[in-house]
Hints:
By secondary structure, this protein is an alpha+beta fold. It has six helices and three strands.
Amino acid sequence: MFYRESYNNLWYEKNPQIIEIFDHLLGTLVGDIVNRITVSFIAEKTGMQYEMAKQIVIYYRDVGILKERYVVLCPKRGDILFISDKEDLLEKIQKKPICFECENNDYGQISMSNVFLVYERVKKSTTSQEEVNETLIKFGDILRVKKDDSFF
C-alpha cells in the first residue's frame, strides 16, 4: 500500500480489494492529473460505482491526502482558465481570467456549469520510491493511467 491511511479505515475492512486498487491508483498518478482528480476519473479507472468512489475520495480528503479544488473552464471553448481553492474562486472569476484561445477574451459569462470540483493529491505516498518502483514493476500499470490522463 502507498498510504498508511488506507489500512486504518472501515472501507479497508469491508472492501480491501477496492481500497488497494484505489490506493495503487492514487500512489502512482503522475503529471497534471494529480492536481485535478475527479470522482468520475476514480470510478472509471477502478471500476467502482460513482457513489462509492465519492465516499472514498471524501475519506481521503478528510485525512489530508486529497484537497478540494475547483477547475474553471472557458464557457466558449472548454479550455481550463484556472484551478482554484474555494476561498479564492469568486475573486478569480470576477477578475475575468484570460482565455488564450478566445479572441479579445470574448467568452461571455462564467456560470456554475463552467466550474467543476476536483481533488489535488497533496500528500505524497508514505511508501519509499524503491517500493513504488517495485510495485510498478510487479503489477505494471494495471489501471492504464497515462501521464496526461484526465477529464480536463
